[in-house]
Design goal:
498 residues; mainly alpha
């Protein structure tokens, strides 16, 4: 089964079960078990593979992110208990008047926190939940807004952990230079921004998201269906001010960026750019979060908005809030490990080399589709472009311009697959940040992301023959807007008939 289509069957099983049963824990576990059985040839060694190569390795590999999740959960609990969240919510109600404004503010904050997608998901969710809740924006819509400004924004930000990851897998070329040149051709990420802005402005919704949004508006039910997180009652503190939420968040942002840069210098970086190229998010983010948490506790006690005893009670509360996300991430990573052992990389590499003998100018579109499929099945964009970029640079060695288009197609496809996969860590983080049922987030987000992906695919076909972003990107934006206006017309007509 090694290096064949069977390598992708375990994640397909997990994804299908998750969508059918709407229960993610058992679905991921069954997928990982299937992968272990395939790898061990259905022998008893499968148990050893599942435990050591899957679950134990997943916990070890993600220890830094688990720590960051717990620290951020504690910080959110602390902000709530001190009254900072309630003070910000009261301020936002007087300054953000509309649902569109609340959604746009969420988008804007997501764009501003471009350094890392995990950090983006959890921070934006923590800050904007009270605001979107007060304007009856469903948690599914909030999760989409968070997810749409996480990986897509990080993938077009030169100073980010994603830029560093891409730079690290490019051989024989300047990885950073190639990443920057690919930004104007990253049609999926750029058109996602167009999509989000259109939704904020028009208030249009379609697919399963429409039902969630209508239910939130009419019945003030932010969840509609599925398991709901425990309601956290916001604590109103007469001594608390808006600065009691903003200052800790700003300190967290600054220290996490500092942590990423510091980790880059420890790994051999000599200046800011090379530090980001060599940064380690699994070290830098927890480093920044620990420092920010210590600062916040001291600041709140000094301000006398919370006692030391109450501050310490937030530790188990924050940990418990992040247990579901940690469990899903562990099981999803275990499944990815099984997929790697089964030779998914070798299978996809063989497919790409076979495709390269076909029509040369259509290769960017083919690369895009392969990246979409691989990232969706494995739930990892970093793993996807880690596999495909060396192949792409080899295929287009004689044509640097088309190489840039091919690399951007690889990155765009990886972002889409990561965006919609139920086993993607970023998707899991977006659900955790919005405190939204994970399957609800996946099912409501897919039609929106698929709409952008189809338009991006058409744009890559054009770019293969006209590799000029100044020409092709405006065409893509026009196609995206036309598509959205057509969908709005159809949705409005069906609403009127209903």
């Amino acid at each position: 089964m090694f290096g064949t289509f069977w390598a992708l069957v375990p994640p397909i099983i997990a994804i299908a079960l998750a969508l059918i049963t709407k229960e993610v824990y058992s679905s991921l576990f069954i997928g990982a078990v299937a992968g272990a059985l395939f790898y061990a040839g259905f022998h008893v060694e499968a148990l050893d593979s599942l435990l050591n190569d899957g679950i134990v390795a997943a916990i070890s590999d993600n220890a830094g992110i688990f720590m960051f999740l717990v620290l951020l959960g504690i910080l959110v609990a602390l902000l709530n208990k001190a009254g900072g969240s309630a003070a910000f919510g009261a301020w936002a109600k007087t300054h953000i008047k509309t649902r569109g404004g609340a959604m746009f503010a969420t988008f804007l904050l997501g764009v501003l926190i471009f350094v890392d997608d995990y950090f983006n998901c959890l921070t934006v969710g923590s800050v904007m939940r009270p605001v979107t809740d007060s304007h009856h924006v469903s948690r599914a819509k909030l999760a989409y807004l968070i997810d749409a400004t996480a990986a897509p924004i990080c993938m077009i930000a030169p100073i980010s952990s994603w830029a560093a990851a891409v730079s690290g897998v490019v051989e024989d070329y300047s990885g950073f230079d190639l990443f920057v040149r690919a930004i104007p051709f990253n049609f999926y990420s750029l058109l996602t921004i167009v999509m989000v802005l259109f939704l904020c402005k028009s208030g249009m919704d379609y697919g399963p998201m429409r039902r969630h949004e209508l239910n939130a508006i009419r019945n003030n039910d932010l969840f509609t269906e599925g398991e709901q997180p425990e309601a956290v009652e916001e604590v109103s503190n007469p001594r608390a001010k808006v600065i009691d939420l903003l200052l800790p968040i700003l300190v967290l942002v600054a220290l996490c960026v500092g942590g990423l840069v510091y980790s880059g210098y420890l790994n051999g970086g000599t200046d800011l750019i090379s530090a980001f190229e060599n940064c380690d998010a699994f070290f830098g983010l927890p480093w920044g979060a620990v420092m920010a948490l210590v600062f916040t506790v001291i600041y709140f006690i000094a301000r006398r908005v919370i006692s030391f005893k109450d501050a310490m009670s937030c530790i188990p509360q924050g940990f418990c809030a992040m247990v579901p996300a940690i469990l899903i991430l562990t099981l999803a990573t275990s499944l990815k490990n099984m997929t790697t052992l089964l030779g998914a990389k070798e299978f996809v590499a063989g497919m790409m080399h076979s495709a390269s003998s076909g029509l040369y100018s259509l290769l960017p579109a083919v690369i895009y589709l392969v990246a979409c499929g691989l990232a969706f099945a494995t739930g990892t964009s970093w793993g996807t472009f880690g596999i495909l970029i060396p192949i792409v640079t080899e295929v287009f060695k004689a044509d640097f311009t088309l190489m840039i288009v091919g690399v951007s197609a690889c990155l765009a496809g990886a972002v889409f697959g990561d965006h919609v996969s139920p086993i993607s860590d970023t998707t899991i983080m977006a659900s955790a940040g919005a405190q939204c049922n994970h399957i609800n987030h996946v099912s409501t987000q897919f039609p929106y992301a698929a709409t952008v992906a189809i338009v991006a695919f058409i744009t890559y076909i054009i770019a293969g023959f006209v590799p000029n972003a100044v020409i092709v990107l405006p065409i893509g934006i026009v196609l995206m807007l036309v598509t959205l206006f057509v969908i709005r017309g159809i949705t409005s007509r069906r609403g009127a008939e209903g």
